[in-house]
Amino acid sequence: MFCFQTRNIINVIPLSKQLEYFQEYKIRMEKLVGKDNAHKIVKNAVFVLSMGTNDFLQNYYIDPTRSQRFTIAQYQRYLINCMETYVKKMHSLGVTRLAVVGMEPFGCMPLIRTLRNSVECDEDMNQVALSFNVLLKAKLSTLNETLNMRADLIDIYGVIQNVLQCPTKYGFTVTKKGCCGSGLTEFGTALKGLSTCRDHSKYVYWDAVHFTENMYSIIADKAMESLIASIQGNK
Question: What is the pTM of this model?
């Protein structure tokens, strides 16, 4: 049984394969700069792990397979355990600094609004995201102690909620649908050949699931601020 089923549904590279690529990268780097220098580079680097949204959205709420086997609380713990396994594997490969991106308020996605036939966010789903972030932060704290590493949660939930609640403050005017197609249901490869809005800079969402470049820029800036503060505070 695989921890993350998304790879089979939307053809993404699984974490296990990404770690294989990382091992190959380390071997190549050791040949270029030597084993000791390669170890130092990995030890001082900051790695980013993003997980959760597709695992809930696609694998639990849309595909009924997991929801028939797990309650939402059980599924949250299942994902946390999967994440722990991969973090330990990363640590065994020399990773000592890790930034884990928390869950977004996915109940506000245009796709979810459409599926729920409501212009409002699905607050039950948002609460799932919030509680998952709490569990995630607690698990990272435990891993920091047991593995002697620095793993921090990058909490993007509040950043996104602030934008959705006060969009004009950030230069946005459209928050409830995406720029592509109807902006209500299409995402990924379903966007091929569809028209886009005139000014995507005014949209929070690019499609029914993903954010626009401007929104991702805001998220990235806040994430970097949090990450830098964490690193400086733990020197």
Answer: 0.88
Looking at mean pLDDT, say which of 32-41, 51-60, 148-157 comes out highest. 32-41
Nearest to 121 by CA among 204, 14, 215, 217: 204
Q: Could you read off the pLDDT of 55-76 as tens digits, one per residue?
A: 898 888 887 778 888 999 999 9
